[in-house]
Amino acid sequence: MAGLLERVGTLISANLNWMVTQAMKANSMAIVDEYIRKVEDNLEALEDATATVGGEAKTLRRKFEEYDAKADELDGNINLFLKQGKEALAQAAQSRYNTMHRMAITYGEQATAQEGEFQKLLDAKVKLEAKLSEVRSERTELEAMIQLAKAKETTHKVVQGVAGVAGSVPGELGDMREAIQKRLDKASAQSDMDANRLDDQMAEVLETDKLDTQLAARKAKLGLNKPKDDEVAAAAGATFEVKVTPKK
């Protein structure tokens, strides 16, 4: 019994702040769960011991009451025998009374002691139950804190990973990015080619026009354009010729 109360006392006096700190450092509920398991095991043993000691205390108290009642009865009989002058009966009753009285005292003392042990166990049980309730409440809050810490760590890793993508894109994502970049480069090159082709066409037209102008100037100097001019003039005269019909 003393060993049980000592273990219970150790569990009751446990430093919850220290446990919470250790759990946070380890990022694990193991130390708290182990404490709760010990408390539950000892609480079960404590409840059994409390019931046993309580039952024994009741038995001893009942024995005390029985012997004390018999002693009271014998005490009355002794007085009666003395009044009646029955010395022998009074002597026998006195002897029996002494035994009953002694037994009553013994059971009374044992009952009182056992009741004291019973009360200690009850007090320890109440304190241990309160401690268990406190630890369970702390565990709930601690678990939430640890989960929050893990979530923040995960978020931090994700942010670091995303930041690293700008410098290096691994695996399939990097291949996809490279393929898209190649397509963009090809499209840009095609656009440059189209622009160059248009420039070439425009330059070709302008060059042809320039050549035609230069040739026309040469023809004019050589007089190669006059026949053409005479033909144009003749055509114009024919166009405006009026046919007159003579009167009869």
Give the uncertain stretches in residue-range form: 165-170, 238-245
Q: Label the overall shape.
A: rod-shaped
Characterize the quaternary organization of these chains.
Answer: single chain
CATH topology of the largest domain: Helix Hairpins
CATH class of the largest domain: Mainly Alpha
Question: What is the topological layout?
Answer:
Layout: H1 2-12, H2 16-26, H3 30-83, H4 87-165, H5 171-222, H6 226-240
Helix pairs in contact: 1-3, 1-4, 2-4, 3-4
Notable features of this structure?
rod-shaped, mainly alpha, single chain, Helix Hairpins, 0% strand, 248 residues, 6 helices
Question: What's a quick, concise take on this entry?
Answer:
90% of the residues lie in helices and 0% in strands. It has 248 residues and is mainly alpha-helical. Residues 165-170 and 238-245 have low confidence and may be disordered.
Give an overview of the whole structure.
It is a single chain. The protein has 248 residues and is mainly α. It has two domains: 2-157, Helix Hairpins; 175-221. The protein has six helices and no strands. Helix 2 runs parallel beside helix 4. The longest helix has 79 residues, at 87-165. Residues 165-170 and 238-245 have low confidence and may be disordered.
